[in-house]
Design goal:
The structure is a single chain. The protein has helices at about 1-10, 15-30, 30-45, 50-70, 85-95, 110-120, 135-145, 160-170, 205-210, 245-260, and strands spanning about 80-85, 100-105, 125-130, 150-155, 175, 190-195, 195-200, 215-220, 230-235. With about 280 residues, the protein is α/β, with parallel strands linked by helices. The protein has one domain. Strand 8 (about 215-220) and strand 9 (about 230-235) form a beta hairpin. The termini are far apart.
Length: about 280
């Protein structure tokens, strides 16, 4: 497996994305459950049929570009061009010296977003990224090695990891979360996401409230024909009120994520099992 990943890491981006598109359609063909979930989730959000078809290929491109990003040597810049939008807004936030909590939905190349931000700002503002370790040992080891870059550290989705995030924010650093990832039992509430109840993390709003940190969105759009990426940093469409309860805050964050996803629905991972319930947590009727 590692030999295949290393081979893929050395291909040009246009070829990587072409192979990834085929991989996306292969996954679609082989998994009825995946087809049904992608189709149903996208239809729930009102995504046009053309964007649904594009999302199949984009999911494969996202997977295929990971070896190119993860297996490059430590300290080597990202191999592909990354254009920035929102640097002025981001610079203003940095000037406040507050902690910065960045939310990145499963949209575009969220792995590139974290590493590109670290490459540009990590020396002055180290980044801590929350992640859920993979079950496969080899993949877990690869993730941990690939994501531990100069200026970026990882924190597991555990109580110890949450404490790590709190310390980073209180030092005035940056933290990255995937707010549309289904949290562990007891760390979320049910809130609407594209009109359907989804178990949604409460961590983001609580971290911001406890540390006084700023909230923002960062996401990375994949450009066609291997031309690279556009990374966008922007404020939340609907920041949760500071005194909001967990359900109100989660609903506001979900609406903000919906607004971001609407900017590029063809690159959202509609096949992600967003509406599943954590163990022993029953979904509302």
């Amino acid at each position: 497996m590692m030999s295949l990943l290393r081979w893929l890491a050395r291909r040009p981006l246009w070829l990587t994305h072409a192979l990834g598109a085929g991989l996306g359609w292969l996954a679609w063909a082989l998994s009825p459950a995946y087809r049904r979930r992608l189709r149903d989730n996208a239809a729930l959000a009102g995504v046009p049929a053309a964007d649904r078809r594009a999302a199949v290929a984009e999911a494969g491109r996202m997977a295929a570009e990971l070896p190119r990003l993860w297996l490059r040597p430590q300290g080597q810049p990202i191999l592909d061009p990354v254009q920035w939008e929102g640097v002025g807004w981001l610079t203003q936030l940095h000037a406040t010296h507050r902690g910065l909590l960045f939310l990145s939905p499963h949209l575009g190349s969220f792995e590139v977003a974290a590493q590109a931000y670290t490459e540009r700002f990590g020396a002055e503002r180290p980044v801590t990224v929350l992640y859920r370790p993979a079950r496969q040992r080899w993949l877990r080891q690869l993730e941990e090695t690939a994501r531990a870059r100069p200026g970026m550290v990882t924190a597991p989705a555990t109580n110890a990891g949450v404490r790590q995030l709190l310390r980073a924010l209180r030092r005035g650093e940056t933290v990255g979360l995937l707010p549309d990832q289904v949290p562990p039992e007891g760390m979320g509430v049910w809130a609407p996401f594209f009109g359907r109840p989804a178990y949604t993390m409460t961590l983001a709003a609580r971290l911001a409230r406890q540390t006084g940190s700023a909230l923002g969105v960062i996401w990375c759009q994949r450009l066609p024909r291997g031309r690279g990426y556009v990374l966008r940093a922007q404020p939340l469409a609907e920041p949760p009120p500071p005194d909001a309860d967990d359900v109100t805050a989660a609903a506001a964050l979900n609406r903000s994520m919906e607004a971001v996803i609407a900017q590029c629905p063809a690159q959202y991972l509609w096949g992600y099992h967003r509406y599943k319930a954590p163990r022993r947590e029953a979904a509302p009727a």
